[in-house]
Amino acid sequence: MKTLQELLYKVQLLATDGHTDKPVSGIAFDSRSVTEGNVFVATVGTQVDGHQYISKAIEKGATAIVCQTLPETRTEGITYVQVRDSEKALGLMASRFYDNPSAKMKVVGITGTNGKTTTVTLLYRLFRALGYNVGLLSTVQNEINGEVIPSTHTTPDAVQLNALMAEMVRRGCTYCFMEASSHAIVQHRIAGIQFAGAAFSNITHDHLDYHQTFDNYIKAKKQLFDELPVQAFALVNIDDKRGRVMVQNTKANIKTYSLQTMADFRARLISNSLHGLHLEINQQEVWFQLIGNFNAYNLLAVYGVAVSLGEDSDEVLRVLSSLPSAVGRFDRIVSANGITAIVDYAHTPDALQNVLETIAELRTGNEKVITIVGCGGNRDKTKRPIMAGVACQFSDHVILTSDNPRDEEPEDILAQMQAGVTPSNFRKTQTIIDREEAIRKACAMAAPHDIVLVAGKGHETYQEIKGVKYPFDDKKIIEAIFSTL
Ligand SMILES: CC(=O)N[C@H]1[C@@H](OP(=O)(O)OP(=O)(O)OC[C@H]2O[C@@H](n3ccc(=O)[nH]c3=O)[C@H](O)[C@@H]2O)O[C@H](CO)[C@@H](O)[C@@H]1O[C@H](C)C(=O)N[C@@H](C)C(=O)N[C@H](CCC(=O)O)C(=O)O
Ligand SMILES: Nc1ncnc2c1ncn2[C@@H]1O[C@H](COP(=O)(O)OP(=O)(O)OP(=O)(O)O)[C@@H](O)[C@H]1O
Ligand SMILES: N[C@H](CCC[C@H](N)C(=O)O)C(=O)O
Ligand SMILES: [Mg+2]
């Protein structure tokens, strides 16, 4: 067992009260999961202040407390450590507790508003196909050498993150590809993680409920690059107008990718069809299975990361061209009578527009596009009217429905979405609160060759309503409806 002192290596301490040379059985940041001999790290959260739970943690067996504000009354025998930033301390301590697993593999973090899951999933599959033992940390699932471990967050909390990485190391992984969400960066879930490299996909409107301003959101993503070590690479999409800003203060080796201009990794889009993407890349023409211009960026990011990690470019392209997209990303289901349904995780205005523009480009005749879309509760309210507006602009018919209402009233979310529907689009828009009913209605409206886009939930297998996750899977519902046509 490690001592508290060993865990606190590199943590900026303000004061200590009690022995720090005592062994620690584990790290907990939630009083409800404290067990005997744990150190409890009190963080100031977004809902409650974890400092309120210090005495609860001690009752449950915590023998040491790491906090930002020392409690007025202290319990005898308990060690109290005051730090400047508890979340940062938690990240550093978790890394130490698990013997710095990130330093024993090459860890690559992907950040950006959209494209992270697609990029890390492709990297994971690519490196597995190249013969390596690999770990994946993603929104859809975590995976170690083919074994799936369910994920609760896009980026796990610091303790879970290091525990998973330690397991990857134990199973011989030499690479780990992970999503770095802006929440995780700001909350220092990745403090202490040693990155071999990081990549930036794009930044557009999302999460302004949490970050308040777009500038803060940019700063959050940039922090990943600011903190990279000198030997790491920092790969950025320079077609995104914030690409260069991301790396302006990094010490790492800057690499760029682009579909439009000179860059370290450059591709040219030759064509984009329902059969996939045709790109010119590294002076050769390659066909990929993924659909949509935006996926050309994801493929280029994967190529850039793999080559930056030392892989052979031809070999990378050979394998990459055979890989499918991640589940719930432009996932197509075609009915016996020729209706195409597309399930896609577009849950931001930009993603929705990209997917609808892709569909528009792929239309061959006068097929109608029917879009079903909702917005999650307890999340950025400002994207709601914009997403409804985008859906109307690019569809023949729109059904506004529920996503994960969480603790909000679905009617309120839908009213905010409706505010984005201009009078000229009223006639083609309807609102059906129940998502399954909305999908049924769209499928019933669709004629052969029409396209039904079901946006927002992608791979999700539940619908979260007032704290309960009910089973719900867009794809399964569509398959059931299609089986009756
Ligand atoms: C808004 C947000 O990001 N919240 C995350 C944050 O929780 P928090 O610090 O705000 O928690 P809090 O409820 O205020 O509690 C404060 C502290 O008191 C502790 N506590 C609380 C109650 C109690 O009885 N005892 C106790 O000790 C809590 O454990 C916590 O340490 O830290 C927790 C631990 O890491 C996360 O589980 C939690 O994720 C919540 C559930 C969440 O929904 N997060 C989403 C928004 C998120 O993180 N999403 C990103 C993806 C975004 C993207 O797609 O780009 C992700 O990485 O998944
Ligand atoms: N490079 C891209 N640029 C813009 N939109 C994209 C890009 N890649 C994917 N998308 C769109 O965004 C959706 C989400 O993609 P993906 O899951 O890969 O992103 P993500 O960044 O992991 O999202 P999250 O923040 O929820 O984890 C896709 O279903 C697609 O509609
Ligand atoms: N990672 C994103 C996912 C949004 C998916 C959408 N279905 C929703 O529930 O809002 C978030 O946590 O904001
Ligand atoms: Mg993701």
Automatic annotation (TrEMBL):
Residues 328-458 form the Mur ligase C-terminal domain. The modification N6-carboxylysine is found at residue 221. Pathway: Cell wall biogenesis; peptidoglycan biosynthesis. Meso-2,6-diaminopimelate binds at residues 379, 403-406, 456, 460. Residues 24-98 form the Mur ligase N-terminal catalytic domain. GO terms for biological process: cell division; cell wall organization; peptidoglycan biosynthetic process; regulation of cell shape. A motif (Meso-diaminopimelate recognition motif) lies at residues 403-406. GO terms for molecular function: ATP binding; magnesium ion binding; UDP-N-acetylmuramoylalanyl-D-glutamate-2,6-diaminopimelate ligase activity. This is UDP-N-acetylmuramoyl-L-alanyl-D-glutamate--2,6-diaminopimelate ligase. It comes from Flexibacter flexilis DSM 6793. The lineage of its organism: Bacteria, Pseudomonadati, Bacteroidota, Cytophagia, Cytophagales.
